[in-house]
Write a structure and sequence with these properties.
single chain; six-stranded antiparallel β-barrel; 9 helices; Pdz3 Domain; alpha+beta; disordered N terminus; 525 residues; elongated
Length: 525
């Protein structure tokens, strides 16, 4: 406790308690007499009217108020007390102020009803029948469940002296009424149905006429030779659908019958996408036959398969070298599994170098493609691109797509086909030997440009290969291959692929800014 100073001292010490005796005070404390309660100056005089109004009832000898703590006994009166004149005048014309003591009150509201299926529910089971008072109004039921109050009121015997309860009869909905309603409903339904049937027949007779015959023109369809319809009619029987399945994959494409012996030309990626595939060919007449792979050429994305069937319609193979940009062409195949689909367009471009991804680890295919705007979609692969004479000028193989390198987004008007001259050469070699020999330069390249000229940059030259023996070196930029202008690495690959193994070609190149040329004898691979 902290030190404190006090003006009074006790026993020679300083007492810092808050209850210490004040300084200079001695002796004991004495109680202070309580102050007298305030009294009114004068008690007001009670008027005679107030005394009469608030006095004890007439005939009562009890005091007006009990003593504090007294228990009030129940008070019963056997006689009706007179109503003060003031209250009687205030409520004049409203009937008797109160019933006579002991009278039973009759409810002014309708008595309790009961559901039609429970006749003994007329009396409220939660109310004492002998009680002279109602706690609340009677129970309320839905309109279709209510019966009249009168039945319940009549069943209860009124006490002697009690007034009769006014009640209105409300009819009970019984089985007879229900039957009457059902019969009326059936009659109304029958009449309505008959009227509806008559109206429908009448309306039908008004709208129809059995004697009407539609006109028919005698003008035949104009399908001159070379029309799309004429081409489709002649070529479609030579185009087949190819279904390929394996243990873990399935796919479909198209093919072209190229020989009566059952040989069919298609794309390599149609039949080589799965290991050990099972191949079935479906013909234009919906007959089918199993097929076997004769040989494949991954570098040109071509393959030949064979069926054991000889009664076949063979396609006519044209000359792709005679094509010109703008020539009309027709694509026939089975896009998206829709067999025998025909679309038309034109040749959009020729000799378009196109690199296609290889299948199952095979090298990429690079083709000198025919570009067309005829609609080509997944499933058209291996089908025919036909000219106006009905001759096959290409084997449909790929489409360009926006935002997808897989080409599965659908046609956008840019499709590609392998020139039929390349396809014919490859097919003959596959049928003859089962494989294809390709010309080989002995070098790999990529596309480059110096801003004014484009070319194929030799990335790698195989030692002692055809290019190395001709004096070509890594870093040389090839600009011409024979008479073919080389403006990209793919263009050089295509030019070599279209050459024959053992052919000698003049190759022009640029080395350190100096132009040169070399005579290259192509190898085989």
């Amino acid at each position: 406790m902290s030190d404190a100073t006090n003006d009074g001292a006790t026993n020679g010490r300083v007492d810092s308690s808050p209850f210490a005796r004040p300084g200079g005070i001695e002796g004991s404390f004495e109680p202070v007499a309580p102050a007298a309660a305030a009294q009114p100056a004068a008690r007001p005089t009670v008027s005679a009217t107030d005394r009469e109004t608030f006095s004890a009832p007439a005939g009562s000898n009890a005091v007006f108020a009990p003593a504090p703590g007294d228990r009030l006994p129940p008070r019963h009166t056997s006689a009706r007390q007179p109503v003060p004149a003031e209250l009687a005048q205030a409520f004049a014309g409203t009937g008797p102020f109160a019933p006579a003591p002991g009278d039973r009150l009759t409810p002014s509201l309708p008595g309790p009803g009961s559901p039609w299926w429970k006749a003994d529910a007329a009396v409220d089971p939660w109310r004492d029948p002998q009680s002279p008072y109602w706690i609340a109004g009677p129970p309320v039921y839905a309109d279709d469940e209510v019966v009249g109050m009168a039945d319940a009121v009549e069943e209860a015997e009124p006490e002697a002296g009690a007034k009769a309860a006014p009640s209105g009869k409300r009819a009970r909905f019984g089985l007879s009424a229900l039957a009457l309603v059902l019969v009326a409903g059936l009659i109304a339904g029958g009449i309505g149905g008959g009227v509806g049937y008559w109206l429908s027949q009448r309306a039908h007779a008004v709208l129809t006429d059995p004697n009407v015959k539609l006109a028919k023109t005698d003008t035949p369809a104009n399908r001159p030779p070379g029309s799309v319809a004429d081409i489709a009619k002649r070529v479609s029987p030579a185009v087949v659908s190819i279904d390929v399945r394996s243990a873990d994959a399935a796919g479909s494409g198209s093919g072209v019958i190229i020989d009566k012996g059952g040989y069919i030309l298609t794309n390599n990626h149609v039949v080589a996408f799965a290991a050990s595939p099972t191949i079935r060919v479906v013909f234009a007449d919906r007959s089918s036959s199993p097929a076997k792979v004769v040989g494949t050429d991954p570098r040109n994305d071509l393959a030949v398969i064979k069926v054991d069937k000889t009664d076949l319609t063979v396609a006519s193979l044209g000359d792709s070298d005679t094509l010109a940009v703008g020539d009309p062409v027709v694509a026939i195949g089975d896009p998206l599994g829709l067999r025998g689909t025909v679309t038309a367009g034109i040749v959009s471009a020729l000799k378009r170098p196109l690199r296609l991804p290889g299948e199952n680890g095979e090298p990429d295919a690079v083709i000198d493609a025919v570009q067309t705007d005829a609609s080509i979609n997944p499933g058209n692969s291996g089908g025919a691109l036909v000219d106006a004479a009905g001759a096959v000028v290409g084997i449909n193989t790929a489409i360009a797509s926006v935002g997808q390198s897989s080409g599965q987004s659908g046609n956008i008007g840019v499709g590609f086909a392998i020139p039929v001259n390349t396809a014919r050469s490859v097919a003959e070699e596959l049928i003859h030997t089962g494989k294809v020999r390709h010309a080989d330069l002995g070098a790999s390249s990529r596309s480059v440009t110096d801003g004014t000229r484009d070319g194929a940059y030799l990335v790698q030259v195989v030692p002692n290969g055809p290019a190395a023996k001709a004096g070509l070196k890594e870093g040389d930029v090839v600009t011409m291959f024979g008479q073919i202008l080389i403006d990209s690495g793919d263009a050089l690959t295509v030019a070599v692929a279209e050459s024959k193994p053992g052919a000698t070609v003049i190759v022009r190149y640029v080395r350190n800014g100096v132009a040169g040329q070399a005579k290259v004898t192509l190898g085989a691979s």
